[in-house]
Design brief:
heterodimer, A: about 120 residues, mainly beta, 4-stranded antiparallel sheet, B: about 110 residues, 6-stranded mixed sheet, 5-stranded antiparallel sheet
């Protein structure tokens, strides 16, 4: 597609439930990043994929968070046993192999609210 | 660790110039970016500068980089009400991940 697509745009879930957030990157972009943006803050890095593999997952806050990119294109961020503190906007970005001077194209994000 | 800092708020009158400042800590950063975020929207890349440059101009936008002081600024000439948004400075991690480290954002309010 023309841009990075994230679905759903909004998700409200109950505490303790499982959620999946989807990112469809720009076709041909090998690098894919997930960020989390809490209210009043800048985005914080969660995980980076180069192709199908998670090359850096050092930003995942704990083992309730997991992400996959099985075919090197679409990625899914999975959160188990959600907590109210997980409420945030989850942003996905893709780039041509690490951004360089071309920057990173961000999706519009998924706003997750845990009640 | 890496850190990027920005002032939280800037108010200007329409037609004036705006200058948004940013400091960063990672001296190995190769690229520095400015992103714009409007309410309820994603991040829009405005401009970027390579670390071996001092200045970059792109229409109404001028980026100044002082690598010695690790200081980056974004100047918007002839600021318009449509420029009202949050502006994020970001440095590209100098390691293999190339992840972005963002500041907390500066809210620019343009008064008519």
């Amino acid at each position: 597609g023309a841009g990075v697509s994230q679905t759903p745009s909004n998700k409200v879930t109950e505490k303790g439930k499982y959620v999946e957030l989807r990112c469809d990157p720009i076709s041909g972009h090998t690098a894919l990043y997930w960020y989390r943006q809490s209210l009043g803050q800048g985005p914080e890095f969660l995980i980076y994929f180069q192709g199908t593999g998670a090359a850096d997952d050092s930003g995942l806050p704990n083992d309730r968070f997991f992400a996959v990119r099985p075919e090197g294109s679409v990625s899914t961020l999975k959160i188990q046993r959600t907590e109210r503190g997980d409420s945030a906007v989850y942003l996905c970005a893709s780039s041509l192999s690490g951004g360089a001077g071309y920057g990173y194209t961000f999706g519009s994000g998924t706003r997750l609210t845990v009640v | 660790g890496e850190d990027v800092e920005q002032s939280l708020f800037l108010s200007v009158r329409e037609g004036d110039s705006s200058v948004i400042n940013c400091t960063y800590t990672d001296s190995s950063s190769t690229y520095l970016y400015w992103y714009k975020q409007e309410p309820g929207a994603g991040l829009q890349l405005l401009t970027y500068i390579f670390s071996n440059m001092d200045m970059k101009q792109d229409q109404r936008l001028t980026v100044l980089l002082n690598k010695k002081d690790k200081h980056l600024s974004l100047r918007i000439a002839d600021t318009q009400t449509g420029d009202s948004a949050i502006y994020f400075c970001a440095e590209r991690d100098g390691g293999a991940t190339n992840k972005l480290i963002f500041g907390t954002g500066t809210l620019l309010a343009v008064q008519p």
